[in-house]
Design brief:
The protein is of the alpha/beta class. It has eleven helices and eleven strands.
């Protein structure tokens, strides 16, 4: 069993820096694993070097060369898209799977997305089953897992999260658990984590400040980034104990908002893991 610590590239967003610059900073902080974010087509801020997202229309070898240059690997790709809109999500996730395989990332993380107003809740599950069935055909060819993250209306509850992950019988349809999103949605992140452990493939280590909790808990289904692990309400010692009890072998990917928070998170989690 091995629990490793990585960082989601969102930590560099506040500095308006490119993907390459973000990877360099992550490596200097001591991270050996990063979680890149990807997008379709051309995007102005990324093209200008002011945003960390990486276009899936670019050469995967370019991303791998950047990672290799700084001695880091990808724990997963952040590839969020609306599962209830297969015309968008099927080709998007298929491209993300192929990119993940090319750079050696074992997981593509996504969530159900916002339910379109013209799709009823009953219809939503049928559409998502079609999307996931189609996408998993590609995932199976490349050996890349799909991690469903709790981040929207259905997955705000553990029951809803497990229902989506159970839509298709596949060892590659798994859970990317986000502690902060679950907490802000009003759930119990520890009991929820225990419930999904048999399906767990990746973890977003997101902490939430007391102020953020008081302002938004129970009113939202998630948040882009949290605070430094150890600065907020999440009991990381308890989280790690649950993961160890379940023999989790994978990555705690820190999801915070600044370089300083990323540094404090790494020190805090390393201390708890005894690294």
């Amino acid at each position: 069993m091995s629990i490793e610590i990585g960082v989601n590239m969102e930590f560099i967003r506040s500095q308006d820096k490119s993907f390459a610059a973000g990877v360099e900073v992550a490596a200097k902080l001591g991270y050996k694993l990063v979680e890149p974010m990807v997008h379709n087509g051309r995007e102005l801020l990324s093209e200008a070097g002011y945003f960390h997202s990486f276009s899936m229309d670019d050469d995967p070898g370019e991303m791998k060369a950047i990672l290799d240059q700084h001695g880091v690997k990808a724990s997963a790709l952040s590839a969020h898209c609306p599962l209830m809109r297969p015309e968008i999500s099927v080709p998007y996730l298929q491209k993300a799977i192929r990119l993940a395989a090319a750079i050696g990332a074992p997981v593509v993380n996504t969530d159900e997305g916002i339910r379109p107003e013209w799709v009823s809740m009953d219809e939503a599950f049928h559409v998502m089953k079609y999307t996931l069935t189609t996408v998993l055909r590609t995932a199976d060819r490349y050996g890349v897992a799909i991690g469903i993250e709790p981040h929207q209306s259905i997955t705000r509850t553990t029951e809803g999260l497990l229902k989506i992950v159970g839509l298709v019988e596949s060892p590659l349809l798994r859970v990317n658990y986000d502690t902060g999103n679950v907490y802000l949605a009003g759930g119990d992140p520890y009991e929820g984590l225990k419930a999904v452990c048999p399906l767990l493939v990746h973890v977003h280590a997101k902490d939430i400040t007391v102020e953020h909790s008081e302002a938004e808990r129970g009113k939202v289904t998630g948040t882009p980034v949290g605070c430094a692990c150890g600065d907020g309400v999440i009991d990381w010692k308890r989280v790690i104990a649950i993961l160890r009890e379940a023999n989790f072998n994978g990555v705690l990917s820190v999801e915070c908002g600044t370089e300083q928070q990323a540094a404090r998170s790494l020190a805090h989690l390393n201390g708890l893991l005894g690294n």
